[in-house]
Amino acid sequence: MMQRKRVGWWFFTKAKLSLNTYRNFSSSQHVILDNPNHSQVLVEGNGCSRMAILNRPSALNALNTNMLATLHKFYRSWEDNPDIGFVMMKGSGRAFAAGGDIVALYHLINKGNMEACKEFFRTAYSFMYLIGTYLKPHVALLNGITMGGGAGVSIPGTFRVATDKTIFATPEVHIGFHPDAAASFYLSHLPGHLGEYLALTGEKLNGVEMVTCGLATHYSLNARLPLIEEQLGKLVTDDPSVIEATLEHYGDLVHPDSSSVLQRIEILDKCFCHDSVEEIVDAMENAASETKDAWCISTLNRLKEASPLSLKVALRSIREGTFQTLDQCLLREYRMTLQAIHGQISGDFCEGVRARVVDKDFAPKWDPPTLEKVSQDMVDQYFLPLSESEPDLELPTKSREAFL
């Protein structure tokens, strides 16, 4: 039986598993395993690996409760199967996953079905924690749009392969929400203050930039992905170093170009290092005024378009994530999420989704409308423990033991 150890975040810890490359398996032929929900999650099996395929291409593979529950069920069964050495995930169409199905959540909230909303987030965050503590190597092929929840089901895993088609972002502040799905954990661990920049502006990174800053572990041209999938499918191993060698052999070496935000780290750090959103905005205004630089002006405009309350909540969330573990971040994000969807502090989430995705008038009416009117008490409420009558997020104890 393959030796089982925790390998999530192996890229950073270099944890090793036993080499089992020469093991023979009876299930060596390629198979397709569909699921009871028919279509939204497909599975390909080949030898000792399994590939989960997110299959809602018309919705950019936006994640819903059924998809996440199905993924969780498959992943737990694969983790317990000694004949499966590693697991992969990809998306169909032009996206890996654009995030959670926020339109469905918007309609559920308007119908007053809060329990279904909470079930979605409980299911999502629990699966993301499973990915981050998985006992077997995990390879996510981030080909196409990878945002919000799409990042949440991939970045906590062992390997993330970005391509020339990859578009990454955490755009939640522009829909009156906060970067969640483990974003407060992985963004807070990026170099300098890049995490704050991405959280507060919702700006995009391409595949090259993801690899350079550490959000992705490898890079490949889209045209080479079929070859990489083929070579991975031939592996009979549970050793992450063997998988990494394959990814490196068929990957591509790249460097960010001169227009990349990563070439502006010095000014980015200078502006986004401040303790408050107001100070960050002031710093960006000064930089834009002094330099007339297009990047500074664009960044300033992105800050001014976002929900003022979301900006302040997001900044605090990222800063707290610096000192918290993955499970602590997910627990906190769940509590913050319940505050956002209940709308008792502000209705910005529903208003943001309405303006950006439903009606598409791109003219949200934020409440409060300015940073000055966002009180400290409003922000503090997002970070309070849940009431005794509200069940907290429960993460699997089995995965916690993987850290021991």
UniProtKB/TrEMBL annotation:
SUPFAM superfamilies per record: ClpP/crotonase
The enzyme's E.C. designation: 3.1.2.4
GO biological process: L-valine catabolic process
GO terms for MF: 3-hydroxyisobutyryl-CoA hydrolase activity
Keywords: Hydrolase
Matches recorded under Gene3D superfamilies: 2-enoyl-CoA Hydratase, Chain A, domain 1 (3.90.226.10)
Catalytic activity: 3-hydroxy-2-methylpropanoyl-CoA + H2O = 3-hydroxy-2-methylpropanoate + CoA + H(+)
A Pfam family per the record: ECH_2
Top EC group: hydrolase
Coiled-coil features, chain-numbered ranges: none
Domain Enoyl-CoA hydratase/isomerase as annotated: residue spans: 50-383
UniProt pathway: Amino-acid degradation; L-valine degradation
NCBIfam families cross-referenced by the UniProt entry: PRK05617.1
Role according to the record: Hydrolyzes 3-hydroxyisobutyryl-CoA (HIBYL-CoA), a saline catabolite. Has high activity toward isobutyryl-CoA. Could be an isobutyryl-CoA dehydrogenase that functions in valine catabolism.
Assigned protein family: Belongs to the enoyl-CoA hydratase/isomerase family.
Protein name: 3-hydroxyisobutyryl-CoA hydrolase
Organism the protein comes from: Vigna angularis var. angularis
Originating gene: Vigan.09G008000
